[in-house]
Write a structure and sequence with these properties.
With 176 residues, the chain is α+β, with helices and mostly antiparallel strands. It has five helices and seven strands, in the order E-H-H-H-E-E-E-H-E-H-E-E.
Length: 176
């Protein structure tokens, strides 16, 4: 049985380790080794989500199994290190979509419904905050899950080059 809770600052090392495992393993069927390396500069944890109380963890027997969040801020994707992607402007729920952010599942817990469970909880929290839609920047590995959960492609995107390598992403959206 999995338990769910909102992340705290003390969880950051475990979250970072889970993200590293997920990027290294779960992207292998979708990205080249060079793109996986580059994606570490594109993906990652935005600790503003933890500060805002909108980053959810799934645990089993005290072990972090999955994580993901939502945001009422304009940043669509990218971690603390992605300064050019960050925009802390607060969104207007009446006209702007909430952001689904930094969804990761530990490879040891993949395909057990954790991504779907976290996504549903984040969507419900965004709705409770008055949002009527949500957007995300999906990885190619995450796209099948998001499509199954009702998200539609807005546009395919290539990241800014990282050492000459661009990472394919998919901007997706959904009415809540």
């Amino acid at each position: 049985m999995f338990s769910f809770r909102w992340a705290e600052t003390s969880d950051i090392p475990a979250i970072a380790a889970l993200m590293e495992r997920a990027i290294a393993v779960l992207q292998q069927d979708f990205l080249t080794p060079a793109q996986i390396t580059a994606s570490r500069s594109v993906m990652g944890l935005d600790t503003q989500l933890i500060a805002d109380g909108t980053y959810l963890l799934a645990e089993k027997n005290g072990r972090l199994a999955a994580c993901g969040g939502w945001s009422a801020r304009a940043t669509l994707y990218g971690g603390d290190h992605s300064q050019k992607l960050r925009d802390a402007t607060m969104l207007d729920p009446a006209r702007d979509p909430a952001r689904i952010r930094a969804m990761y599942v530990d490879p040891d817990f993949a395909r057990r419904g954790l991504g779907r469970a976290i996504l549903a909880r984040c969507e419900a929290a965004a709705q409770d905050a008055g949002f009527h839609s949500a957007e995300m920047m999906a990885t190619l590995a995450g796209e099948p899950l998001y499509r199954a959960c009702g998200y539609e492609t807005i546009e395919p995107v290539l990241s800014a080059p990282v050492d000459g390598v661009r990472v394919p992403l998919i901007r997706m959206g959904k009415r809540l």
